[in-house]
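re: ur question from earlier - yeah i can do the single chain one, its not a big deal. heres the input i used so u can compare w yours
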Amino acid sequence: MKQIIKKVIIIVLILAVATFLEFNDKTTPVIRKDITNPIYTIGDSNYSQALSENRGVVKFGPLFGGIYPGGKAFGKIEDAELFLKTEGLSNDFGVYKLSGDYSFDVTDGFTNKSLVVIEKVN
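and the output i got, formated as tokens:
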């Protein structure tokens, strides 16, 4: 019986460490230096407030085995603005530039890795 308990404890510890390492890897933001194709996202007024207070804001990539697909991403400011207008979010949300490159850091309209919110663009 003690052998089974030891094995279960070891398995649980291994799973906990693996989960922590994956979460840590997925939440550490990428900051690209040479951006050819900027990424824009939407965010609420909390983004603006945090940026004005020089606090870092991260737009997460996919988490929890794909349950959260990543942040909504756009290749053009106009596309993000149109999304806000279409969804009726124009008053509460704004468009923000991210620290990634659309060619590398976006898949199917969502960020595929965590990125830093750099600035509000509208």
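The chain has a mean pLDDT of 88. not sure if urs matches, ping me
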